[in-house]
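Worked example 3 (structure in, sequence out).
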């Protein structure tokens, strides 16, 4: 294992923000990951797991403890079953599945980060979520001190949530297993209207796998959601806030606020989210509360391509970013009575 002290964490995050870790360990095998975790736990040392760094907001003071960077590699493809080591680059894994003619994760192309992070957040976009294809997650259970295999049901997936996110100090993901579909080179049925429109087909239809992946990549790039070191709109964590899920009563109150603020004929985005619940759009809320693309005058601003991405324009601090996030949360709350919740993991800071 590679070990560094007083190691900068900013270069390991897509925000390029945050102070140093007291100690940074890079593990390249499952055994090294388990060894590092056990050592930290035995010593009572705080532990921060770092994968692709695309979902981390690290405080300017850094992290007092051991940051464990998971850099494991391994891809096993057998029939329609795909197993990925936690450190595998997610975008590469999606490309590999598409090249193999397997459907189920093609609309998750271009999402930055590592494979091991996908079940934690139940990563999803453009009508797909990893919970639809994950069969098992192999993880180190810090409480039991052993490696365990959790079924899809045991992962307790929900919208941008899982058992791993609910109990972040317990599990360290080692491997993720997926059951994909051989549809003769075609994608899974398209569930997202924007994707279907871009491909010139109707919702529920299938298209060539490669076409689905390339279309999603273009859509994401147009919103600054594909990493590019030269484009500060991608110096972000992608979507900074989750789409709010409201009870029927909450949605009715929200709807009334919308009509009051924007006029009787205005209808906010509304999507079914289970019995008695409706999901609305965080990006819409932000925009209609007055925070348009490119909002801000400091070194942290909204993306010029998408209101849901907060960005580092090159010289920001984490506190600059948080000040902008807090301003947006307060503005949306005042305008519509809805409280936005951050999607990235906060390390040493909070809203």
């Amino acid at each position: 294992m590679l070990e560094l002290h007083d190691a900068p964490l900013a270069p390991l995050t897509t925000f390029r923000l945050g102070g140093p870790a007291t100690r940074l360990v890079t593990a390249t095998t499952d055994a090294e990951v388990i060894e590092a975790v056990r050592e930290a736990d035995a010593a009572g040392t705080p532990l921060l797991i770092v994968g692709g760094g695309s979902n981390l907001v690290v405080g300017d003071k850094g992290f007092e403890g051991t940051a464990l960077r998971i850099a494991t590699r391994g891809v096993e493809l057998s029939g329609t079953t795909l197993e990925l080591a936690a450190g595998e680059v997610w975008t590469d894994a999606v490309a590999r599945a598409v090249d193999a003619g397997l459907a189920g994760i093609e609309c998750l192309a271009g999402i930055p980060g590592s494979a091991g992070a996908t079940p934690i957040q139940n990563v999803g976009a453009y009508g797909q979520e990893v919970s639809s294809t994950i069969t098992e997650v192999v993880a180190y259970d810090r409480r039991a001190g052993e490696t365990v295999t959790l079924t899809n049901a045991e992962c307790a997936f929900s919208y941008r949530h899982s058992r791993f996110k609910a109990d972040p100090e317990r599990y360290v993901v080692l491997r993720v297993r997926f059951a994909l579909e051989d549809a003769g080179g075609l994608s899974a049925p398209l569930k997202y209207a924007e994707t279907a429109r871009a491909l010139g087909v109707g919702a529920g239809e299938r298209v060539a796998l490669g076409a689905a992946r390339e279309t999603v990549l273009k859509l994401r790039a147009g919103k600054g959601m594909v990493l590019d070191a030269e484009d500060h709109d991608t110096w972000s964590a992608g979507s900074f806030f989750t789409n709010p899920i409201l009870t029927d009563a909450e949605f009715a109150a929200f709807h009334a606020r919308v009509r009051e603020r924007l006029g009787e004929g205005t209808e906010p985005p509304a999507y079914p989210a289970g019995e008695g619940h409706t999901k609305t759009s965080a990006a819409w809320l932000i925009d209609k509360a007055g925070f348009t693309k490119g909002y801000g005058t400091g070194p942290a601003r909204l993306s010029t391509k998408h209101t849901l991405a907060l960005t580092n324009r090159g010289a920001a601090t984490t506190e600059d970013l948080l000040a902008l996030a807090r301003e947006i949360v307060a503005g949306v709350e005042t305008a519509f009575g809805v409280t936005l919740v951050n999607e990235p993991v906060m390390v040493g800071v909070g809203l």
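Notes: The CA atoms of residues 269 and 284 lie 8 Å apart. The chain has a mean pLDDT of 97.
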